[in-house]
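re: that chain from earlier
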Amino acid sequence: MKNLVSIAFLFIFISSNAQTETSLQQARKQYQEENYAEVIRLLSKAAEEEPQNAQVPYLTGRAYVDMSNYKKAAAFLEKAIGMDSSKSNWMYECGLIYYAIPDYKKSLSYILLAGEKGYKRTNDYLENLGNAYINVGQHDKGITVLNEVLKKKPEDPELLYQVAQANFKSGKFEDAISLWDRVLEQDKSNAEALYMIGLSYQKKGEKEKGQQLCDKAIEMDPSLRTKRQQLGGGGL
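^ sequence. v structure.
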């Protein structure tokens, strides 16, 4: 009988705890189940129950990110940051969300703010920061940051291409050629890198040499002919 009483008491205790779960706690469980409609519903209740809890708008923002609704996500992330300005990871996430919208000025602003608030300057952070600078037209700053990453990842073809592209956009054609050459050293069949080398030569005045390289690239990959048409003639 004692055991039965104990079991009955335990059942009542567990049921009582389940019933007293907050809306935020329930929302977290639903989030793990990827039931975002229920997450949003529960977090709306949580906002009334815990109006000062920054976790509520943050989790709401995350739910909207997972539904690819970036504008709503950004609004909730900004609200969360306004309530708790100590979370550098929230600021970084907000920067990435604004990149996806896209709103490049706000993206750069939040990525920089995250760094100021102590977010670790990982390779991913620096790469996103460098691209954020480039997206707002601050190519020199972007190149400086990306070169910092390139020193640590010198054989990364995607990064090499990004830095080459940034140099090309800023008119540093020799540097762009040098970087695209490094891409070709790793993959001789990379026709797009060869095409951009040819285009860089044309931009720096060596039109015949550049045209020949572009033609060779198009022979390797005829789809690059579309790029030529989009850019006009030989790409100029």
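Residues 2-19 form the longest helix (18 residues).
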